[in-house]
Amino acid sequence: MKTNFTNMKLQIIGLGNVGRSLVDLINKEEKSLDCLGLDLKVVSISDKNGTAIDEDGLDLKTILHHKKRNWSDFSHYHHSYTGLEAIKSVKSDVVVELTPSTNNGEPGLSHIKSAFSERKNVVTANKGPLVASYDELIDLKKKNNVKFLYEATVSAQLPIFCLINSCFIIDQVERIEGIFNATTNFIIGEVESGKTFKTALDYAISAGWAETNYSDDVDGIDSARKLVILSNTIYNSHSRLGDVKIEGIRNIEQIVEEAKKREMKVKLMCTLTNLEKGVQMKVSPKMIPLDDPFATINEGNMGIRYHFKNSQEIFVSAQFNNPIQTAYAVLNDIIKMDQ
User: Fold this and answer.
1) How many degrees, rounded to 5, is the angle at CA 290 between CA 285 and CA 292?
2) Is 28 annotated as catalytic?
3) What are the extents of the domains in the chain?
């Protein structure tokens, strides 16, 4: 147990499912954080309509209650006060950027760049900025001598960068295969059970596995973004989304039918291979033998297989049930800021 406490002031930008889960998690794990010698104070929380600010630390036990009431009668909430303004004006150590991913990276990209300019560390689960401007963000991070962690961007709590950086420090990753999209994995499973793609998609939406705007998932774009982040982080490859060969699952019924004849499963597989001529990235449905570990990754779960030069194959999988698991990965990155 640490005897000296570290006081860390956080700003949270984005109060959607992951943001709300993070607030709840920090509140519930206060004693565990104390045991680590870490005193977290959330000094501002921004949603799309404004920002709640208390430089002495917001009362997280009541924040979600006030959010549900649209911040009525909450004196610490400032309507129309943006997250960008809060980053520039509120003193903090770490900015936690949790706004939704977009093709151009905004508004998350501006939030992260502003935080770096203010010499604030950043933790994010937002894929968009890393896909749109990875090289620029890494340059700004180095220029301002700050930390930038984004474990949750690829597959929620599934260990990706932390595993490579802590367990395989001098080994080389030659190839990665993965199931990185919970939504498509759930839909494919429903098609395998006998549903049409449309019926499976509608069920996934009603069950909360898919958004009503589902195209990024079913067309493989979300998975491709994660491959770009992996490629740039592991290989410094300067990859862009257009470098990924992408095939989605809209025609998955015929593939599932063929797989059943061969007694195989179907998964939307992501592959990243490091070749002498450069990296190769692909997202596409693939028939998987039943004795392959990926055949066990069902429902909305995810998995990854690393092919190392020396350590050979390492396979890791994780269940994914709700946003609190993504929030846990974010909190773990926040804790690493003290290391």
Assistant:
1) 75
2) no
3) 6-157+324-336, 161-318
